[in-house]
Design a protein that fits this description.
three-stranded mixed beta sheet, globular, TIM Barrel, alpha/beta, single chain, 13 strands, eight-stranded parallel β-barrel, GH, about 500 residues, binds ligand GBH, GH_1_N_CS, Glyco_hydro_1
Length: about 500
């Protein structure tokens, strides 16, 4: 089912610089060529996915339901009418998929483990599913056989349904922390001999805000459902931070001495520019927006500190406090995190509003937009309304994070969907994506070589077209096209472009 790369000379023709430039100018009316700037020779290039988005096999071999199995079936109107029961069927096609990605010369594959596949009911006293463990065992073995490093996310949004039913999952900090710790212990025990890079949680901001305030992601808590949107998101964030810290401590004390791996968390976030560059209020709003988005998790996790002062001030008692014991835990564990995992896609303008905010406002009354006070757009739109091409903002965010946390950064997700990609003929010729990733890699090069930021790797989102949560099978982020009727995989030109570009860039720094 996997395809072979096109012959070398046609590859050269398809990826000529001219094609890329034309594609970009058509969108922007200006030109911003990719420069193929150098990257360090040891820079890691990878692809990324998440279990629910690619695996399928939702009810196979003893897997328990997750909140996403429930949500996509009970509320299909919130997921474009679609579910991921089968999606890419990576569960059955995994061996071929690893062979396919190895053709792109990737160093890394970042994937997530489905908690309810290996502990169907999720809890610390519940049975373990050996068939689920066998799936991840063979995936990891196959990757290593192909010389690809497995980078494993423990939690990418698919909470076991029973944990949610029992105590509301993240809403009960003590219970969740204990169950998550037990699940992590099982993963380290079974896979830690071969997995050397662990990520506890993917994008805690999204779980807190989009799943417990806006309600666009499972379990869909929002005002309309009568949940407490004023406090729930902050409780959820608190639980994630403490669960992360206690798993980090367990890994460091019990597993790391022997297994010698590293561990951290992945935070997402846009970069924010002031809506009106001459307004001090908007300049402050842009900074504060990043503190509320990234500092919320980054300050406690990486600095071992309380939440940013601006959050405490604005949110008051909506924001849980850390007890003396919890502060100690954060202080002990913050330096164990070996890298900053960054998911990044786009930049926005931030504008300070003066009208009274909504009772459950989570932004400190900051409005986000794609157009500034002068009518200038932040960048050309992709096929996702929220995602515009803004490589300069990416460079600035790399600097912002480096300055605040001084940790080597791994870009654990970056990519975009293009227009009209359902049709494979259109999809393979993904000039827009090639331009986007090319420019974003140039930004990393500048951040490293001109600004002195430490960036260790870049993983494209995503390896395969997949189930894009609330947007179903609409937007496609893959460097490999999937025909969801036949499940045929067809690499897009960006896959070959990236193979070539990473080779060139890393050769240039030698
Ligand atoms: C990541 O989330 C996820 O880790 C990954 O699973 C996902 O497939 C990928 O990005 C692509 O989206 O319409 O303005 O309300 C990124 C965070 C959260 C970004 C929801 C888009 C909707 C923005 N995403 N958000 S909006």
């Amino acid at each position: 089912m996997s395809s072979v790369p096109p012959p070398v000379n046609s590859e050269a023709r398809m990826f000529g610089a001219e094609d890329l430039i034309t594609a970009y100018s058509k969108t922007t009316g200006q030109d911003l060529p990719v420069q193929e700037l150098p990257l360090p020779s040891e820079f890691a290039w990878g692809t990324a996915t998440a279990a629910y988005q690619v695996e399928g096999g939702a009810f196979r071999d003893g897997k328990g339901d997750s909140i996403w199995d429930t949500y996509s079936h009970l509320e299909p109107s919130r997921t474009n009418g679609e579910n991921a029961d089968v999606t890419c069927n990576h569960y059955e096609l995994m061996l071929e998929d690893v062979d396919l990605m190895s053709q792109f010369d990737v160093d890394v594959y970042r994937f997530s483990i489905s908690w309810s596949r290996i502990i169907p009911l999720g809890g610390r006293n519940d049975p373990i599913n050996e068939k689920g463990i066998a799936f991840y065992d063979s995936l990891i073995n196959k990757l290593i056989e192909r010389n690809i490093e497995p980078v494993v996310t423990l939690y990418h949004w698919d909470t076991p349904q029973r944990i949610y039913d029992r105590y509301g999952a993240f809403l009960n900090t003590t219970e969740f922390e204990a169950d998550f710790k037990h699940y992590a212990h099982l993963c380290f025990t079974r896979f830690g001999d071969r997995v050397k890079k662990w990520i506890t949680f993917n994008e805690p901001y999204i779980t807190s805000i989009f799943a417990h305030l806006n309600g666009t992601l499972a379990p869909g808590h929002c005002r309309e459902k009568g949940t407490d949107t004023k406090t729930e998101p902050w409780r959820v964030g608190h639980t994630i931070i403490l669960s992360h810290a206690s798993v980090v401590e367990m890994y460091a004390s019990t597993f790391q001495p022997l297994q010698k791996g590293s561990i951290s968390i992945v935070l997402n976030g846009h970069f924010y520019e002031p809506h009106d560059a001459n307004s001090q209020q908007d300049i402050d709003a842009a900074q504060r927006r990043m503190e509320f988005y990234i500092g919320w998790f980054g300050d406690p996790v990486f600095l071992g500190q309380d939440y940013p002062a601006a959050m405490r001030e604005y949110l008051g008692d909506r924001l849980p406090g850390f007890s003396a014991e919890e502060r100690e835990l954060l202080r002990r564990t913050c330096k164990i995190n070996a890298f900053y995992g960054m998911n990044h896609y786009s930049t926005k303008y931030a504008r300070q509003l003066t009208d009274p905010p909504a009772y459950d406002d989570w932004t400190s009354n900051v409005e986000e937009s794609a157009i500034n006070s002068e009518g200038v757009e932040i960048g050309p739109p992709s096929a996702a309304q929220w995602l515009r091409v803004a490589p300069e903002g990416f460079r600035k965010l790399l600097n912002w994070v480096w300055k605040r946390y001084r940790l080597p950064i791994i870009v654990t997700e970056n990519g975009c969907p293009c227009i009209g990609e359902k049709d494979v003929e259109v999809a393979v010729n993904d000039q827009f994506r090639q331009r986007y990733v090319g420019l974003y890699l140039d930004s990393i090069s500048r951040a490293i070589n001109e600004d002195g930021v430490k960036v260790e790797g870049w993983y494209v989102w995503s390896f395969l077209d997949n189930y894009e949560w609330a947007a179903g099978y609409g937007p496609r982020y893959g460097i490999v096209h999937i025909d969801f009727d036949t499940l045929k995989r067809t690499p897009k030109n960006s896959a070959w472009y990236l193979k070539r570009s990473l080779k060139t860039r890393r050769g240039r720094s030698a």
